[in-house]
C-alpha cells in the first residue's frame, strides 16, 4: 500500500511525508521505496506530526470542544496546516529478485513513492537476519535498542512460526552483542513473546 513520498534521501535512510495525517507506519515496521531497478527496504525509526511551516507551532483550539475530532470538525483547515512525516533507516535492497542486507549503491529518489511492505515481503526480507548488523550499529533519533526490538516484534507478527523466528533473532543478537551483556539481556527481554 502506497503511504507517502520521499522528501529527503541519504545513503543510510530517508524522510517521507505521509499522504494522510497521522497515518505513519508503525515504529519498527518495514517500508519500501525504489530507485531505478532497486527496491530499497527501510525500518521506520521516528515519526513526527507537526506544522508544515518550520518554527511555527500549532495553537491550542479545543478549550470549548469535547473531543479531538470536534477540533478538526470546527477547524477543517487545521488538517491542511499539519503533516505527518517519518524517518526510515535503510536495511537492505532487492535487485533482480535477490535481497541483500546492506546499504544500496544508490539512494532512493526525492518524490519516490513509499510503500508499507506486505506480509509476504516482510517474510521474504526476514528469512535472513543479517540486516540486524546495520540496526545494532546505527545512529538513530529514537532509542536504538527500542527500534531493534520493535522491528523484531513487528516482523515476528507475520511469520509462519513466530517462536522460531524470535529464537533465531535472539541467537543473531547474541552473536552481534557477544561482549555487551547488559544490552543483549535488555533486547532479549524486549523481544520475549
Keywords:
single chain; 193 residues; alpha+beta; six-stranded antiparallel barrel; 7 helices; 33% helix; globular
Question: How would you explain this protein's 3D organization?
Answer:
- The protein has 193 residues and is α+β, with helices and mostly antiparallel strands.
- The chain has one domain (2-191).
- It is built from 7 helices and 7 strands.
- Strands 1-2-5-4-3-7 form a 6-stranded antiparallel barrel.
- The radius of gyration is 18 Å and the shape is globular.
- The model has no long low-confidence stretch (mean pLDDT 94).
What's the SSE blueprint?
Blueprint: E1 2-9, E2 13-18, E3 30-35, E4 38-51, H1 68-74, H2 78-81, E5 82-95, E6 98-100, E7 113-116, H3 119-125, H4 132-137, H5 144-156, H6 162-176, H7 181-191
Antiparallel strand pairs: 1-2, 1-7, 2-5, 3-4, 3-7, 4-5, 5-6
Helix pairs in contact: 5-7, 6-7
Question: Uncertain spans, ≥5 residues at pLDDT below 50?
Answer: none
How many domains make up the coordinates?
1
Intertermini distance:
28 Å
Number of helices: 7
Strand order of the largest sheet: 1-2-5-4-3-7
Quick one: how many beta strands?
7
Mean pLDDT: 94
Oligomer: single chain
SSE string, helices as H and strands as E: EEEEHHEEEHHHHH
In short:
With 193 residues, the chain is of the alpha+beta class. The protein has helices spanning 68-74, 78-81, 119-125, 132-137, 144-156, 162-176, 181-191, and strands spanning 2-9, 13-18, 30-35, 38-51, 82-95, 98-100, 113-116. The chain has a six-stranded antiparallel β-barrel.
